[in-house]
Amino acid sequence: MNTASAPPSRPSRRGPGRWTALAASLLLATGGLAVTGPSPADAAADPVAVTVNANAGLATVPDTALGVNHAIWDSQLGTNETSDLLKAAGVRMMRYPGGSYADIYHWRDHTAPGGYVAPNTDFDTFMAAARRVGAQPMIIANYGTGSPAEAADWVRYANVTKGYGAKWWTVGNENYGNGHYGSAWEADDHPDKSASQYARLVVDYADAMKAVDPTVKVGAVLTMPGNWPDGITAGSDPGPWNRTVLSIAGPKIDFVDVHWYPGGTAAESLSRTAHIDEAAHLLRDQLARYAGPNAARIGISFTELNVGTGQNTQPGALFLADAYSDLLENGVFTVQWWNVHNGIGTVTEVAGQTDYGDFGLLSSGGCTADNSVCEPPLNTPFAPYHGLSMMNLFARPGDQFVRAATDEPLVTAHAVRRADGDLAVLLVNKDPANARPVTIDYAGFTPSAAAPTTYSLTNGASGVVTGQSGSAGSATLPAYSLTTLVLRPSSPVTAHPAPPGQPTASGVTDRSATISWSPAPPKGAPIAKYEVYRQNGTVSEQLGETAGTSFTVDNLVPGTRYTLNVLTRDTAGKVSWSSSPVTFTTAGPAESSCTIRLTTASDWGNGWVGNVEIVNNGANPVDGWTLTWSWPTSWQQVSSGWNATWTQAGRTVTVASTDDNRRIAAGGSTTAGFVGAYSGPNVPPTGFVLNGTPCTVG
C-alpha cells in the first residue's frame, strides 16, 4: 500500500503553558532507605530472579547521554532556576529550538511565523543556558521553511562569530510528517515533499554547513522501526523513508535522529521498552545496508521521548529510566526527553496521583482554561525529572553497561561497571500494586560484604531517597518504583589488565566469522591471551582464546545473530573488563537443496503482505513439503495465508503444501503468500527449514 492512515496522536508542540512566577521545589531528598518497601504481606510471593553478568559488556555511557528539549515558546528557557535544575539532574545535551517549531523558526530575526515565540528565548540566551547547565547543544536547522544557506549562516554565527563550538546539527524535525504519507503536522514549503527530495536537500545542507565549519556533525531525520511510517513506500520513492533517506544522504551525514512515543496505556508504554533492542538492531542494519561505505561511523540520537499516559507521574519516571538505559545500552549517543516545560493538558488520576497531561519535566505553573485545576508552582519537578535524576545517579559518563535481566516482565534490570570497580544495578518495578522481592546473582563481579548504597524513587515521592542498607543479593522493590544499588567490589580492581579495543567481525559466512580487535594497552602483568565470549542472554559462553588479536569462530549456526565480547587475561591469571560488543548475523547455508526468497509485496506500518518462494535446488523433485521459520520477536505473527496451510505456534510458523503445489520439480519453485501483523519492529526471519533441511536465503 502506498498510503497510510494518520499516525498515533502526538504531544502538543505548539502552545506554551501559562507561567506563574513561583519558587521551585527541592529535587533530591535524603534519609530513608531505597530498599525499604511495603510489608512482606503486600509483596508478591515469589522472588524475582535478577542476573547481572559483568563480563558481558555493552556500550559505554557517552558524555552526551542525558538530554532534554528546550522550546522557544518557553519563557523559562534561559532562567538560572531552570538551568540549575537541569544541571542538578545531570543533563549534558539540550536541543533547540523545539520540535516542530524548528521547521518554522528563523534564527536571524528569532521569529517563527504562525507560532508563538516567548521573550528571552533567542539563540544566544539558549547557549548561555547550555553553558550554565554544562550541556552540549543540539540544534535543529530549519528544513521546512528554511534553506541550506540559512543553516550555513547559523553555523557561521554560532561557531565562527561567537565561538560556541556547536557540534551537533539536525536537518529538520519529523519531516516524514509533511503529508507525504497522508498525515501532515510538519511545515514543509517544498513542492516536492518526498523522502527523496528531503534526502537530496540534506546533502545540500550538509555541504553548505560543513563548508563553514568542517567539524560540525550533521544528522538526518529517520523514523523508529515498527512505528509509523516505517515500512511504507509513498509516491515515486524507491522505498520507505529510512531506506530512501539513507541511500541518498548516507555518505554525507554523521548521525540519524529518531523520535519515539510508544503511546497506549501506562502498562502498554512500560511494556514497549522491550521493542528497543530490536529497533536499534534494525536501525543498525538499515545503516549498514543503505548508508554507503563506513556506515558504522554514523551515530544514532533519540531526541524526543515520552509516554502516552502518566506524563507527570510515575509511569513517566519508570519509562524514562528504562528506555534511556535500553537505548544507551545499544550505543545511542544521546536520549532527550520531550520537554523541559510544556503546559497543562488533560488532567487525570494515574496510580493514585494527579497527572496534569503535561509533557514537561518541570511544572509550568498554569491552570486549565476554566481554572478548575492548577499545576504545582512553576518549576516544581514532576516524576520524570526525578527519573532523570535517578539516571544521573546510576549511569555516569565513562561507565560501561553490562548485561542484566530478570525472569519477570514487570521487573526490568540494568547495570553498569564503573572505573573505580563499583557496580551499579538499576531495578524497575512496573507493577503498580505489588512490591516485588528480588534475588540478584552476579557473574564476573564479586560484591563486598558491605551494605550497598541505595537510591529509590517511589510512587508519589517528591524526590530520590538515598541510604545505605541491605545486601547485594536481595532487595524488596516498592510498587511502581525505581531502585538503584551501588556495590563495592570485594577486592581492588587496580591490578586487573585493561580490556582490548572494539572488536569487529569480517569474513562472516554461514558457519564462521573472524573477530579482530586492537591490543589492550600494557597494565600490570604481561598479557597472556585474549578470550572470546558469546553473550547468550546474561550467560557468557567462551568460544575460544588466542595470544593474537584476531580469532576465527567456527561451528556457528546459519541465520543466527551473535553478540561477542573479548576479555584480556594476564600472566597472573587476572581478567579485564569486557570489550565493547560486536554483533553480526551469520548467513544462510552456503549450499543447500533449497532456497527461500521472502519478499514484501506491501506494508502499511503495522501489517504487511509477504510472499515466500521455495526453490528446489536438488536433482530430484520434492513430493510434499513443510517449511518452518521462527519470528525473531513475540509481536510478529501470520494473520492469514494462501497457496499453503499456514499455522503459528509461539514464534514458529509452519507452512505446509496443498494438493495443488505439493510437487516441486528439480530446479523448479512454488510460491505461497501471507498477511503478517506486527506491533513492534518487524524484524525479518533469517533461518528457514524445508523438510528438515536448512535452506539458503535468496
TrEMBL record:
Coiled coil: none annotated. InterPro entries: CBD2, CBM2/CBM3_carb-bd_dom_sf, CBM2_carb-bd_dom_sf, FN3_dom, FN3_sf, GH, Glyco_hydro_b, Ig-like_fold. Residues 499-589 form the Fibronectin type-III domain. The keyword Translocase does not apply. Residues 491-520 are annotated as: Disordered. Residues 1-34 form the signal peptide. PROSITE patterns: CBM2 (PS51173), FN3 (PS50853). It holds the Pfam family CBM_2. Residues 587-698 form the CBM2 domain. Residues 503-517 have a biased composition (Polar residues). The keyword Hydrolase applies. Gene3D superfamilies: 2.60.40.290, Glycosidases, Golgi alpha-mannosidase II, Immunoglobulins. This is Cellulose binding domain-containing protein. It comes from Micromonospora humidisoli.
